[in-house]
Design goal:
heterodimer, A: alpha/beta, 8 helices, about 25% strand, B: about 400 residues, alpha+beta, Butyryl-Coa Dehydrogenase, subunit A, domain 1, Butyryl-CoA Dehydrogenase, subunit A, domain 2, about 15% strand
Chain lengths: ~260, ~400
Amino acid sequence: MELVVCIKQVPDTETRIKIAADGKSIDITGINWVVSPYDENALEEALRIRETKGEGGVAVMTLGPERAASALRSCLALGADRAVHLQDPALEGSDSLGTARALAAAIRRSRFDLVLVGQQGVGTDNSQVGPMLAELLDIPHVNVVTKLEIANGKIRAHRQIEGAVEVVECPLPAVVTAQKGLNEPRYASLKGIMAAKKKPLERLGLQDLGLDAADVGAAGARNRWTRLELPPARQAGKILDGEPEESTAELVRLLRDEAKVI
Amino acid sequence: MPQFEALDYYEIEDLLTEEERLVRDTVRSFVTEKVLPIIAHHNREGTFPVELVPEMAELGLLGANLKGYGCPGLNHVAYGLIMRELERGDSGLRSFISVQGSLVMFPIHRFGSEEQKAAWLPRLAKGEAIGCFGLTEPDFGSDPSGMTTRAVRKGNRWVLNGTKMWITNGSIADVALIWARERDQVRGFLVEKGAKGLSAREVPNKFSLRASVTSEMVLQDCEIPYENLLPGTRGLKSALDCLDQARYGIAWGVIGSAMAVFDEALRYAKSRVQFDRPIAGFQLVQRKLVWMVQEITKGQMLCWRLGKLKESGRATSAQVSLAKRNNVAMALEIARLARDILGASGITDEYQTGRHLCNLESVITYEGTHDIHTLIVGQDITGIPAFK
């Protein structure tokens, strides 16, 4: 079974985000870059499927600048067999659709049975690339999956919905987007880290992918970031003194008149 | 517990390779997720977290810088980073890894026969066997050349007699590397658990390294097979070679303790309000915090450089001594200052500083006391030994 995992390199979730001087991007100085946590669940699931089946390979792919290669190498250290880095000046500034187009083109280059991605890329949180990939590849997808079973060329995917678990079946090949709780990602072993150096990391540009520069990157982007702002600083809390009868009445008044939530 | 922020004031981590950073991040996550939630409890109970051994083995932390026999073969800087990240958790845990890797696996790797390597190294790497290192004796600590443990050949067996003291992992070890005088030369012998005449007793009531096992080992007409002699050992120099490895790891390791307590002290100082302002805003507190940053930064740079020297085969024993001496002393002083900044809170184990502080009181003594390292460097620069 051939598995493809698409990942994104994102700022460490502990990063204190600062807005850059242009007012529409983040200041990347001093940021520690990591693999987006949901993508770690996607990779872990792929590794477990390969280990259970005892055959097949796991390819990990990303679209990103030079630094994104380190995210791919950490996936190789965790156990992926090969990595593909989509890197081209024309791909820079891709929106979700541009990213999905480039990844779909890269995925089509080899045989694949299952594509796994995180259910959202932490930071931009659009949750779009997975479903778009499935549309572009013309295969089914199941989103936000918390349990995955594979048998007889089909998948059974569990999804947490309001008050219930939904179980979806679909044939392979398919796209599955991973939710936290699908599994617990492993640590890279030191031997895995050493072995990662010897694994193939392929770089593909626009030409290799057979894409038109007008369809991807900033040129092809259907949406643009026009402005970024930080959430307003949290106001200090208010403590109401006095007897419960009085303070409760005051609380209700404040919630109604000031906070306007009731 | 709040997210640990690792001090790197001079962006020294920029000097690391991508592989080294991956190693650091892996061990850091392991410590955050697996060690910190349980370590205070083990420290309180005085128990070694033996449940962590299989996972540490799985990660490849045992004998990480050795090549072959199931070991990952990491470089020395990566090995140092492992020690630093582990000791950010607890010095006792780092001690376990130091002993297993540098004092048991390293000597078997360097001085052992092919049979000994094949028999022991994979098992020790997988954590299926635990090792210990018996050099120190009740009456011979800083002066191991005076050791009284003797090995006498009897047919195809060795008979060992003597007592070893302050042995990390002693009572849980499956194999003990015992240093003993054989005729006029000190040699290393592998004594397996259950060997006739071998007994171990845990040292009770420690206030330091409580999450680590420390033992006394008695060899009374202890008989072992002839082939358990490590053939490559030649005199005390062989034992000191092992200590160089372990001391190198300690020099890195204690930076982890220092970084942990600095992080805790800084966080506390910024949130603790006295006289209507955070105590971090007072000059006396800032002076302490700045001194910590200064000393940690120097220690980080020193270790990175020492690692590079080691990788090119140029690191001397005296250089390792200077690093151990400097870094343990600074880490201990930083832990004392951090405890002071934490005020009364710093005396409870709700905060980790007290545990690190007590641990470091052992670390400054073991693997060559602070004073002995002074004399090693003193001899190196003057050519005159002050201790003989």
